# Entry
Amino acid sequence: MRIATYNVEWFHTLFDGAGGLIRDDSWSGRRDVTKAKQTEALITVFRALDADAVLVVEAPDCSRGRDGVAALRNFAEEAGIRARAVCMGFANDTQQELMLLYDPDVITARHDPVDLGAPGFETEFRIDLDIDASEDVVQFSKPPLEVALETPVGPLRLIGAHVKSKAPHGARNEADVMRLAIANRRKQLAQCIWLRRRVEAHLKRGEALIVAGDLNDGPGLDEYEALFGRSGLEIVLGREAEASQQMYDPHAAQALQSRISAAPTTARFFLRHEGRYLQALLDYVMVSPDLRTRAKGWHIWHPFDDPACWGQPEVRDALLTASDHFPVSLDLEAL
# Structure
């Protein structure tokens, strides 16, 4: 069984208000890419993935009278892929939803934000972020999707997340950059602590768990990480917990092993002011200890780093056109 996560940049711009695909030569949200070209590229990528379930990060929105669930179903029908049913959690107002596309002939899925003691993601989380003896209130602009799955490899829990970006958007000068970067990192870490609380609760219940999505974090991504001692990635993994309470992703493990060696990457952004591309490891598929023995292959669908993607020009070009992130997939075997 294959489970994947894929952050699709500005997916919502490819649909009209009723969820119909717009396949014309108007510009998409992608730089220098038309809606028709991005749609064709996404169809190629999703067909190549051939996943039983795909967590779609930045899925079409369900706000302002738009039907993102219908939009994603229409896309799946147009693409002719097996993963054609949609499971969605709490809607948000960012135009970027979290949805699970899945094959209903193989999997059943339901949104299931159970009571775990830790606050539900649609509520708020109170934590002292700056050690001033005063609680800060943290919320998710995109509440993580919590899904109960029945699958060929047994029952699973899936948490799909899109954690706060640390980029200092809106900064007007160097002082603004520092202030916003530190504030955003505080919120990103708080969301990861909140996410970890619910991960721990599932692990203590003995449930097979997958945490997938875009954490907007990896080791050494900015100079402010040292101020906080650890990354949000390390928090969600539970690297300081006992082995039975740790999550695992081999790409994360490789990146954390040495901060000065080359690390895998899942995203590629164009820096206009520098005229170059920046690559980063942001997307993960983490598994609980009981699933590690059944995990037979993690795969970053990177058009340059992965020989299988490079060797298929149509797929390679589609990956570059479809999004600024690349899919990450995991194959699980039954016991």
